[in-house]
Amino acid sequence: VSPDVIARNKKNLPSRLFEQYYLAAFVDSGEIFPCFRDAIEGDQLHFEMESQLWLMPEADKLEDIVIGADWGKKEDYAVFTAWSVKQRRMVGFMRFRGVDYISAIKNLLWFGQQFSRLLQVWHDKTGLGEVIDDALSNTELPYEGVVFTNKSKSTMVNTMMLAFQRKDIHLPNWPDMIEELDAYECSFSEIGNMKYAAGDGFHDDIVSSMFLGWAALEEFAPSTIEVISLDDLENMDLKATDFKAADEDFYSWLGKG
Known about the structure:
alpha/beta, 3-stranded antiparallel sheet, 9 helices, 22% strand
């Protein structure tokens, strides 16, 4: 494996995967978001009721918002997290349980209306989420249903893991979120597949909503291409040999007409 490939993947892979694939490390089960606290900002949020709602100041002026929605099942919570694509931060959340799916969808509609421009909602349509997916088609919400498979979940978790590693994500000081991120673990099935879920006795609804929202954010984030002008090239410390091979190829092609 070339050194360039190793250097590139050290930058682009979560640290636990780089250690596993390139350093032959035996990565055991355990916490997978070890550096998330670097992303926490602001004073700790406090809630007196089980249902929780928080919106960033002047949320109604925020544009380019995406939402990750994880639907509660039985004793689980339904959680919506809103993300600013431009600011790369969580700008609102809503957490509740004990309501029917129609009421939950109405809550999502209300939550999305709190922002100036909503780009899309990514929601978990695994299992009973198919019913919600059908119901959402009767609303004006822009949405995309995501089926959780081991592969799709792993991809989304690793994307958010890398964002924490790069300090590219900003979060409110939400105690329940912090508890879930602490408790979220990687384990292995009997056939060696990695599984992501909360530890025994903990919920993972917030984390599921987060990586759905973050995946949507990455989908809508603008791609950038670095363009160097001729004036910039004149000021760069480059040697003629850097262009020699390219020049030879170009003139060879030009000579062939």
